[in-house]
Structures are given as C-alpha cells and as structure tokens.
Amino acid sequence: MKNLFSISLLIVAMLGFNSFAQVGQPVGNGPEITVDKDLHDYGTIEFASDGTCVFTVTNTGNAPLIISFCKGSC
Description:
Blueprint: H1 2-19, E1 33-35, E2 57-59
Antiparallel strand pairs: 1-2
C-alpha cells in the first residue's frame, strides 16, 4: 500500500511539472530594436556650438515596432 501511494505520488508530480513547462518563443519573432551605438562621447564642446547627435534605430524584427516614449539620460 505504501509503495502504491509513493508511485502514484511520483506520477502525479511528474505530470504536474510537465504541465508547468514553458515553451520558448523562437528568436526574432515580433519587433526587435537595434541601435547603431549605445553611447556618444562629445568630448570637449566649444561654446555655442551645435550639440546634435544622431542615433540610427532600426526594427530588425518581423512585426511593427512602436516607440511610445523616448527620453535622454542627461
């Protein structure tokens, strides 16, 4: 009786763990953002000069990329 209970408990545990297994999504499914550089070092900037810097953002995924909020760090 004790062995039967242990075996049934083991089977239930194995079935339970399998039901919680997560299936990973394939890489590249959906939008994926790629930026040409993470940081820009201005070095020494002359007074009253133009401090413009361009970061190229590309959607390398296979679904539309929606950027709803963008903020600089300084």
